[in-house]
Amino acid sequence: MGPPEEFWIEDDPRREDVALLDERLYEFNAAASGVDDGRSLAIFVREGDGTIVAGLHGWTWGGTGFVQAIWVHEKLRGRRLGSRLLAAAEAEAARRGCHQMHLDTHKYQAPDFYRRHGYDVIGELPGWPGADVRIFLRKRLG
């Protein structure tokens, strides 16, 4: 393989192109670490017609569960759906052999929500718009 001919900067890349990058990076990481147990983790709350009204997605790999996103429709907030989604993700991660969960959030999002659920701050990254801080959290399972 020779040097690249050109770089393509794309604001709206095809999902399959991004998925290819994720797959190749996973293959490299699995070969380098000897750990090949990565799996997606997704939990949805749907209305009767199938419309998603809440959900969580992330992955598990190498004894760690990661929450990429958690969302609850604003009309359903305050009903503990977020807490139940997080607990379900933790239970599934533990079932898969994970000993910890990891996630990140912004100061204006939900750091107190995660702290109430046993997550500890392990790092902060300042410099986001409006004096925001990105907060990295971990919870040990079991």
Describe this entry's structure for a reader.
This protein has 142 residues and is of the alpha+beta class. The protein has one domain (15-140): Gcn5-related N-acetyltransferase (GNAT) (Aminopeptidase, 3-Layer(aba) Sandwich). It has helices at 15-33, 81-95, 111-116; strands at 39-46, 52-61, 64-72, 100-106, 120-128, 132-140. The chain has a six-stranded mixed sheet. The longest helix has 19 residues, at 15-33. The chain is globular. The termini are far apart. The model has no long low-confidence stretch (mean pLDDT 96).
In short:
By secondary structure, this protein is α+β, with helices and mostly antiparallel strands.
Task: Show the helix and strand layout.
Elements: H1 15-33, E1 39-46, E2 52-61, E3 64-72, H2 81-95, E4 100-106, H3 111-116, E5 120-128, E6 132-140
Parallel strand pairs: 3-4
Antiparallel strand pairs: 1-2, 2-3, 4-6, 5-6
By CATH, the architecture is named: 3-Layer(aba) Sandwich
What's the overall geometry? globular
SS strand fraction: 35-45%
Please give the number of β-strands. 6
Walk across the major sheet and give the strand order: 1-2-3-4-6-5
CATH topology: Aminopeptidase
Number of helices: 3
CATH superfamily: Gcn5-related N-acetyltransferase (GNAT)
End-to-end Cα distance: 47 Å
Mean pLDDT figure = 96
Reported for the largest beta sheet, the result is: 6 strands, mixed
Low-confidence spans: none
Computed Rg: 18 Å
- Tally of separate domains: 1
What is the structural class?
alpha+beta
The H/E string reads: HEEEHEHEE
Q: Classify the helix fraction into a percent range.
A: 25-40%
* CATH class call: Alpha Beta
